[in-house]
Specification:
36 helices; 638 residues; mainly alpha
């Protein structure tokens, strides 16, 4: 099993990442959350407390419970109970501010959340929340930023006091300084808070530009991803950033990642086609290409760049015209398709096929030129050819697709990482048409690992390879056994025939723990069809290996989602998983908590954080759905 796959397969990653080969990124300490302090609520109800509790305890009782809390867990419960009162918790304002100074990062972020839920009546806490933006715990930073945004969104007074205006302005400046925070959750929360503060664009755009121009690219790029994740909210700032030569390039990169929602920037980007350094002009063209149809008005100016003296500009122009499916520029593309530069000719031929996908002659011409590029000694040419051929997949016949799959398989052995990655992505895109070639490759030790990973990424359509996966579960190489378990997991319920072998792998003492984690995960993904594995999983759920216990408990829940006896042990483990660095772990944990329903009310605070601030849209959506299920809210119908 590869290092990357093992880390992904630390499915519900608690503290241990055994088998990853390297330490995971630093993660905050585990979270425990509830919505009422035991000292006050215990005598009132034996049921889990939810947002819909009929009569919450009085604020004085909750403040007393917080003051009397003997340990970290009790303080968190008390803070969450106060926070559940929302604006009615303003009587505990001083208590929550004091809690933001707690030695426990867990208490600090719950307290910051509580202040935010009070809303505008807690604006006096903004300076304290600004200080928390420097906290060592990224979750504290995330919740402090979110709280500032919540207060400002709630503050709709027509005549805001000057002291409040000054507090928000200072907060906006501090937030901009944190937009390159190393943690993606913190970056997202910071950027969303800035948007809610609605600072004067002319004043704050230079600050944003400075962050995008002065930092190292390795720091800037993650911030750009977070900006792009905001979509249209970030566009006004980025348009202003285009005016500054120092940040123009980076702003164009972010606008390209935003795509169609960046349409308001088209005039500025169009002007950039002929302004600035070649790399800036090229990135303007690439951003227009990503925006697509709303940028078609710029196709004439882009076509002019096909005659630019700089090769990168010509390549970008040909790519953009094809990406946009720009009509009315056939003559320019036809000329470029006959250029002496073979790469430009191939890109232009691809563009013509994109513009006219039903023209078999143009498609075949593009395939011929691009296939020749696969044999180029230049890795960049190979990578471009692979991606372009993959992009034409909807216009290419099945026989040609299968032939190309064989070519892509050959390139998986390339010494160039970019070529290998492009070939793997192309095989994933081919889906069922690539399964035969990939299954054959499982017999080649040189590429079988990556072939198994690609089959896993293809998912259920690779079901025809199940027999090969089952055979691989007994392979002498533990890495290959683990890879096979992951591939089986990707098939879901369709892999029920593999349950006996997975149970045997789960019980085997041979090999590193990661293989057993993978087996448990696969059983969970199979779901109820793996009912015969429940006894084996129950044994692992009490393991001293916390990660094994977490994955086994999660898998048992997926097999028996209605088994309430599992809830007590599962909920704390799933809450921890939501704090982890693995996207898959957070996604699966959110789904599992939603399946548990109201009994998982203790997870509401961390689910709220994930639903708002997780950097992965699919994880945010899963957390939002879980909150609806726990609260008993019916999803909106389209």
């Amino acid at each position: 099993m590869t290092q990357q796959t093992w880390c992904v397969m630390a499915v519900l990653g608690a503290a241990a990442f055994t088998g990853c080969g390297q330490a995971p990124p630093p993660a905050p300490k585990p979270v425990a959350a509830a919505v009422a302090p035991a000292a006050v609520v215990e005598a009132q109800t034996a049921q889990p407390v939810t947002d819909s509790a009929a009569t919450p305890p009085p604020i004085d009782a909750l403040r007393a419970a917080l003051a009397a809390a003997a340990d970290e867990e009790q303080r968190i419960r008390a803070v969450d109970a106060i926070a559940a009162l929302g604006p009615n918790a303003r009587g505990a304002f001083d208590d929550l501010v004091k809690a933001t100074e707690d030695a426990s990062g867990r208490v600090r972020w719950h307290a910051a959340r509580g202040l935010g839920l009070i809303g505008e009546d807690a604006v006096a806490a903004v300076p304290r929340l600004v200080k928390l933006l420097d906290d060592a715990d990224p979750i504290v930073v995330t919740q402090a930023a979110a709280a500032i945004g919540l207060m400002r969104a709630d503050d709709t007074a027509a005549n805001m006091p000057d002291v409040d205006k000054a507090a928000y302005e200072a907060a906006a400046t501090a937030l901009v300084a944190k937009m390159t925070h190393p943690d993606p959750r913190a970056r997202r929360a910071v950027l969303r808070a800035i948007a809610k503060l609605e600072p004067d664009i002319d004043r704050f755009a230079p600050l944003v530009s400075a962050r995008l121009s002065d930092a190292d690219p390795s720091v800037v790029l993650p911030a750009l991803h977070s900006l792009a994740d905001m979509g249209g909210e970030a566009v006004p700032f980025l348009i202003k950033a285009l005016e500054d030569p120092k940040s123009r390039y980076w702003a164009s990169v972010a606008l390209a990642e935003i795509g169609a929602a960046a349409a308001p920037a088209v005039p500025n980007l169009q002007a950039g086609i002929s302004t600035g350094e070649p790399e800036e002009r090229m990135q303007s063209i690439m951003a227009l290409a990503a925006i697509g149809e709303p940028a078609l008005g710029a196709s004439g100016d882009i076509a002019k760049a096909l005659d630019a003296p700089e090769s990168p500009l010509r390549f970008a122009a040909a790519f953009a015209l094809g990406k946009m499916r720009a009509k009315g520029v056939d003559a320019s593309l036809e000329k470029a398709a006959g250029d002496a530069d073979s790469l430009l000719a191939a890109i232009a031929a691809w563009a013509r096929a994109r513009v006219h996908p039903d023209d078999a002659q143009l498609v075949n011409a593009a395939v011929e030129k691009l296939t020749a590029g696969l044999a180029s000694p230049e890795p960049g040419v190979q990578t471009a050819a692979i991606s372009a051929l993959s992009d034409l997949s909807g216009s290419i016949d099945d026989e040609t697709e299968k032939r190309l799959a064989e070519e892509f398989m050959r390139l998986l052995s390339s010494g160039e990482p970019d070529v290998r990655e492009a070939a793997a992505a192309a095989l994933v895109r081919e889906g069922p048409l690539a399964v035969d070639a990939l299954e054959k490759a499982l017999g080649d030790p040189a590429v079988r690992s990556i072939a198994m990973e690609i089959l896993s990424a293809i998912g259920p359509v690779s079901k025809d390879a199940l027999d090969s996966f089952i055979v691989a579960l007994a392979d002498p190489d533990p890495s290959h056994r683990g890879d096979a378990a992951i591939a089986i997991a990707a098939l879901g319920p369709a892999a029920a025939d593999a349950v006996p072998q997975l149970v045997a792998l789960l019980a085997s003492p041979d090999g590193p723990p990661g293989v057993r984690y993978a087996a448990a995960y696969a059983l969970g993904r199979i779901g109820p069809a793996a009912k015969s594995a429940t006894t084996a999983l129950a044994g692992q759920a009490s393991s001293s290996d916390e990660l094994m216990a977490t994955v086994a408990t999660w898998a048992s829940l997926k097999i028996e989602p209605g088994n309430r006896s599992l809830f007590e042990s599962a909920i704390p483990l799933l809450r921890k998983a939501l704090r982890g660095g693995q996207e898959l772990a957070r996604l699966e944990a959110a789904v599992a908590l939603g399946d548990i329903g109201p009994a998982a009310a203790d997870a509401i605070p961390i689910l709220e954080l994930v639903a708002e601030e997780d950097p992965i849209p699919a994880v945010r959506a899963a957390a939002s759905r879980a909150l609806e299920q726990i609260r008993g809210v019916q999803p909106a119908r389209n």
